[in-house]
Amino acid sequence: MNIKQLNLLEEQLALLDKSLSVLEYSYKRCTIIKDKSEFNEQDLERFESLTGRFARLSDLLIQKMFRLIDSLDLDDHGTVRDRINRAEKKGLIDSAEQFVLIRELRNTIAHEYDPVASEQVFLHVLEFCPLLFDAVGRLKKYAEKYWE
What we know:
This protein is an all-alpha fold. It has a single domain (3-147), classed as Up-down Bundle (Four Helix Bundle (Hemerythrin (Met), subunit A)). The chain has helices at 3-33, 41-72, 80-89, 96-111, 115-143. The chain is elongated and about 50 Å long.
């Protein structure tokens, strides 16, 4: 393990904390309004912030952090699915299948233009946010081993 990788891990963990904090803020604000029969413009703006923050945190976890952990563990190869499967084996997540769904949801967020479908996306994001929160905590705990 080299010092550059450890420095990068430290930087990415700090970014992860910031991303987690803003997603938790949006999650709390949207959980309060999720059961409304109709969303007003302010509600939709809150949900748009939530989905963008969800997509960024899921990308940071799957595309950067899981990849960096794999690199530090000398497992850096394969597809996104392979990376997610290894994250499950390392105990960073409970279910690879759930994180595949999170990745698919992230892709839907990036390409969804139908406002009616977007409301369903919002509800799915609310459902999956706790999994991201949990994964961040697990990853931070797992990363402690590199400084022992």
